[in-house]
Amino acid sequence: MKNRYIYWFDELDKNALAIVGGKGANLGELVKADFPVPGGFCINVEAYKKTVAGLEEKIHLVLDSVEWVKLDDVEEKAGQIRTMILQSAVFDDLQVEISKAYLSLSGEIQPEGALVAVRSSATAEDLPDASFAGQQDSYLNVRGEKNVLDHVKRCWASLWTARAMAYRQKQGFDHKTVFLSVVIQLMVDSEVAGVAFSVNPLNGKLEQILISSSYGLGETIVAGTVTPDSFVLTKKDLSLVERTLGLKEKQLIREPGGNNQLIDVPKALKERFSLSAEQLKELGKLVCRVEEHYNTPMDIEWAFFQGKLYLLQARPVTTLKQDISIKDSLVSGKLSRLQQFMIDDILEHYPEAPTPLDYSVVTMSYQSLLDSVADLGNVSQATEIMTLSEDGDLRLNPPKIRPSVRTLSIPFKLFRKNALTTDHWHNTYGKNIKPFVDGVIAEDLAGVNESLMLEQFREIFGLARKVCDLRFYYIFKANLIPMTALSLILKLFTPKSQRPVLTDLIMTGLDYKTAVIDREINRLAVFAYQHPEVRTAFIEEDRDVFFGKPMKEVFSRLTGGNEFLLGVDRFLKEYGFRTEKMYQPFSGTSWLEDPARFLVIINAALQDTCLEKREGIEIERKNKHEQWVNSFSASLKGPIRRIFERSYLKARENHIIREDTLFTLESLFTVGRKITDELGKRLVLRGYLNGAEDIVFLTVEEITEAFLGRINRNSCIQMIKVRKIRNAVNQTLWKKALYRNLDSNVNSESLKGLAGSPGMAKGPVRIITGVSDFGKLKKGDILVCPYTDPTWTPLFGMVAAVVADTGGPLSHAAIVAREYGIPAVLGTKVGTKFFQEGEVILVNGEDGSVHRI
Prior knowledge:
By secondary structure, the chain is of the alpha+beta class. Helix content is 48%, strand content 14%. The protein has an 8-stranded mixed sheet with strand order 16-23-22-18-19-20-21-17. A 6-stranded antiparallel sheet has the order 9-8-7-6-12-13. The chain has a 5-stranded antiparallel sheet with strand order 1-2-5-3-4. The radius of gyration is 30 Å and the shape is globular.
């Protein structure tokens, strides 16, 4: 009798694991139980066995030679096995069966062939005691017989990735007895999709259902790239316990040709829940049915398409947390003004809720800050002010400052402790930190063992703590007396109309790190501007294609291009550590890591109407500043003059150190990201992570514990899955806290903030939330943003004004706006939510107001 290799879903059930693997068996079980599963079929494991039969001896020889403790050897041997399989032919009988089944699945209405998902289904995946989900590859939007056959082979080969092999080795599975089936399933072009748990994994409550949903295809939620809506239902009557409106930043849609495209979600859709009450009820019933059928808590993926609910996948929940409380706010109770100030300060410095790995950095630096002001009274620990539960629940608990007897001695301590000089800082950086950073940057980590990398990782945090301690010493102790003296002298001896802003007095004409970096960026931009072919490349190339190409490919063929490349290379070696989201370093990326981000900055600088004059303007500004300082100093008498001059020099010296310490932290954590990238890959191979990027959902301590084998692998994967869900909730609550004044702080025509830079300007609103949006800006736009940091500086040369949700007169945005001579209104709290893209507004930097026109 002729062997059979194709099985339709309705021919299978949960007992077919050995025939079609875990995913195929589960889909068959669901179809047989009359669940709404998109149609499809499975290619059984016998097809795989027959294909590799002639390769078994070679595969076994390679397996026997693997040195499992060496990552590069595992990857090399895995590549050898995959190449063997990809180069083998699909035997004739199987080709015929697959083609026939695919054409039947496509039907007459799709003569060109249906869009299908081609998914791996291993005989060791989706088991209750071992979650192999994600260990093998799956492919979406495959169309045509030839493409289907090609992707079937790719799935077979994915059984032999280094990640899958290392995971099986750690779990004790015999490589020679694990086989692969392939699932071919119709794609569902969903309008709304997501995941659902038949038990609430955030608190372990068996009587609750947790649902996450967003627009478009569900991959955005599974990958954690959007903040979805969240719903909690009771199983008893499917009533709504709570719901949280997610940001739903993007949606993944399918283009007519079958490719996926990530696009912005329209504002109107963002502001409403993605599921109706009726859809929630229908989905809740489906979840309960799936759990009842399997008699165990289940994790499912679902989608709504043209009003119909589809069940895409279902697998058991392997671990649960118990007795973890749920809250709907970052803070609890009524806050004092000082406590609210502390919350606002945290939200301004950390515009997103920290992941567990960033939490390790945030609490370390915040503890350093608290220790630096301990003389003010008894303060809490950083880990008490910002708490992180095991399931990833983030809470803010600002303490009540309690002055102590020690407070009375603060003035005397300041005089005694204000003794460190800049030499102390430069010696610390030069002798200890820079050589360490340079060494790791130059090192190929693929050949470094885990114990050394973990030691380097811990050293990064140790050095970062020392840098923070010095940084906050200079900010809060060394700087307090000179800044107070300068402020008092200016107030007493200058008319209000002629009085400079204190920060401008300190920073104008000063070679602090950001000023030096901005000057070098300007010089590179001027060079590009003065070489027509280089300038034209920035202007005329398609932006997405341009910034996706290697720089050498873009510029080496152009007149002046090689010189430009040399300049960029020198710049990045010296200043490339500059990082977006610098206070949350494991969520950020430096220019050195992604030079395309730096090209975005150069592109923005090229829009500066005063580009070629900018350096001259700064020199003239510096000369005028020095003339004013000399004239003002000469007008003072005796000890007042000496106090002013000494305080002026000391404050400027301290600002240089303040900037240098921040840049040093950026360099340390650029190295930290390099190490975590490698550690993440190795944790995938050890079976602790489904993807290397998931390492951000572990704390520093947990990363170490994983490498020491003190964490259960399956529990770690499930814990991260729960933390991803909780992170989505955290992000929503964080934004809710940040924009809490949306209703009370605005009327229909105007918005009030803080005056940051004088002047008035009108223009169209351009909402910029990060580097990826920089390309939207045009000359004369009003930059409306949540915050700015030093990576944003070149934008100020092309915009008419700046409006920011956070900040004040001393913030980065205000200081740079004054340097560029454009109005700025800061601390609006809600500007990015209140104004619409493209509407024309008037910015009044005199009184801190913004008006619709």
